[in-house]
Structures are given as structure tokens and as C-alpha cells.
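SAMPLE LOG
Freezer: B-3
Tube label: C17
Construct: single chain, 217 aa
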Amino acid sequence: MKEFDAVVFDMDGVIFDSERATMDCWIEIADKYGYENMEELFLACTGTNAEKTKELTLEFYGEDFPYDKFAKEASVMFHEKYDGGRLPMKSGVATIMEFFKKNNKKIALASSTRKEVVVNELRDAKILDYFDEIVTGDMVSKSKPEPDIFLLACEKIGVAPGKAYAIEDSFNGIRAAHRGGLKPIMVPDLRPADDEMKELSEVVVDNLEAVVSYLEK
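STRUCTURE (predicted):
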């Protein structure tokens, strides 16, 4: 087995198939109000927190874009569709969690989503108890691709970044983990890995089961 003490998961797009679900909501609202190219913008925002997403959106559509109203409407749509345990989980979540627990590895979460949403979604999916620590976007001042959220997660579980793997799907998440000195594993979701991602990642694999296979070698 590879030598490591901990793993730090991203949540959206890694544990839950929520990036796609959220993007579909944003595109539906954008179509309703006549805004084009929402998918392009959404992909650029993956892995960032709400503040950074707003900044990128206003750059993309202009300062007069009604971001707060738009984001609230998309959020309401998302929660109406997926709250209460209806958010689909990625394949292999239970397998990989049990693998880390069986091998006495610390498990942390580093999600750009705010804490209340993160905790509720993990609890609804009945996987909250797997995590030793949870760090969310509202707990750090700088969003991914800055490494702050990963460094705080490592600090909270008492593990040096170089002894931790980070499991990410987004470009910004991989950049953040790499900058923080963790060992990034990319499991692409909405965007396939490009040359930059392949260079920054220790490995790029198709799913969480493949992560276990890689770490067992």
C-alpha cells in the first residue's frame, strides 16, 4: 500500500453527483431569463466558493447581472429537487470510506460549499460519521485554487500535507491541493483532465473504486 496518513475529500462532484445537478439548475434559470453560455461559466466556477463564483459571474455577464437573485432562485430549485437524501452519490463512496477506516487513515472534507449545506447533505446520505473533520468554504478567506482550505483540513486532523492525499474532480481543487503540498488524485467529473491536470495530479482515474486500487498498490 502507498504510504500516507490521511485523505482529504472534496464533496461536490467527488462524493455526490451534485456538480451536474447544480449546473442543470443554473442552466434552466439562465434559459428562463435569456442568459447564454451558462455552462461555460459554470465550469469555470467549479471548485470555488460563493464569493469567487459571484466575482467570476459578474466578470462574465457584466456588473448589472442580478447575481444574488439568480443564485437564490437556482438554490431553491436545487434544494426542492434534491434535499432529504435525494442527491445522487457517486459510485464507490461506501467502498472507499470503509477502505480508509479499515486501514486507520484520517478522513477530512474540504468543500467550498458552506458548512450548513455540507453537513445536511452528508447526514442525509448517512456518511457524516466517516469524517474526522469538515472544513468548508465559509471557514477560510481564500477560495480554491488557493490552498487554504486543504491546509486547514490537514491542521485540524493533525497530519502534514505531504502525508495526505486529496481527492478532487475540479481544476481549481487540484490546483489548490497541489499548491498546499498534498498528493492530488483527480477523479474528473464535468471536465476531463487536460495536460495541466495530468501534470499536477499524482494520478487521474475514472472513479473512486480506481482510487482504492491505486492506493492499495
